[in-house]
Amino acid sequence: MTDFFALHHAETPLLLPNAWDFTSGAALFDAGFPAIGTTSLGVAAAHGLPDGRGRTRTETVALARSLTRLPGPVTVDIEAGFSEDPGEVADLAAELASFGTAGINLEDSRPTGGLAEPDDHAALVSAVKTRVPGLFVNARIDAHWQTEHPPPLTRVLDRARRYVAAGADGIFVPGLNDSADIAALAGGLPVPLNILYARGLDYRDLGVARVSLGSLLYRAALHTATTLARSIRDGGAAPDDIPGYRDIERFIP
Question: PANTHER family given for it (predicted)?
Answer without folding.
Answer: CARBOXYPHOSPHONOENOLPYRUVATE PHOSPHONOMUTASE-LIKE PROTEIN (AFU_ORTHOLOGUE AFUA_5G07230) (PTHR42905:SF16), PHOSPHOENOLPYRUVATE CARBOXYLASE (PTHR42905)
